[in-house]
Amino acid sequence: MNDDIRDILLAEVADLHKVPVGAYNIRLNSQLDGRNSTKNIEIVGKTDKSGIDIIIKPNTKNESVHIPALVTHAGVHDLVYNDFYVGENAEILIVAGCGIHNDGSQNSEHNGIHRFFLGKNSRVKYVEKHIGTGEGTGERIINPQTVIEAEEGSYIELETTQLKGVDSTIRTTKAHAKAGAKVVVKEKILTHGKQFAETRFEIDMDGDDSSVSLVSRSVAKDDSKQKFVSIINGNARCIGHSECDAIIMDNAVVTAVPEITANNVEASLIHEAAIGKIAGEQIIKLMTLGLTEQEAEAQIVNGFLK
Amino acid sequence: MLELRNISYTVDGEKDIINDVSLKVEDAKFIVITGPNGSGKSTLAKIIAGIVTPTSGQILFDGQDITKMSITDRAKLGISFAFQQPVRFKGVTVKDLINLASGENLSTADACQYLSEVGLCARDYIDREVNASLSGGELKRIEIATIMARKTRISVFDEPEAGIDIWSFKNLIDVFEKIHNEIKGSIIIISHQERILNIADEIVVLANGIVASRGTKEEIMPALLEQAEMAYSGCQYYREEE
Question: Which CATH architecture has domain B2-232?
Answer without folding.
Answer: 3-Layer(aba) Sandwich (3.40)
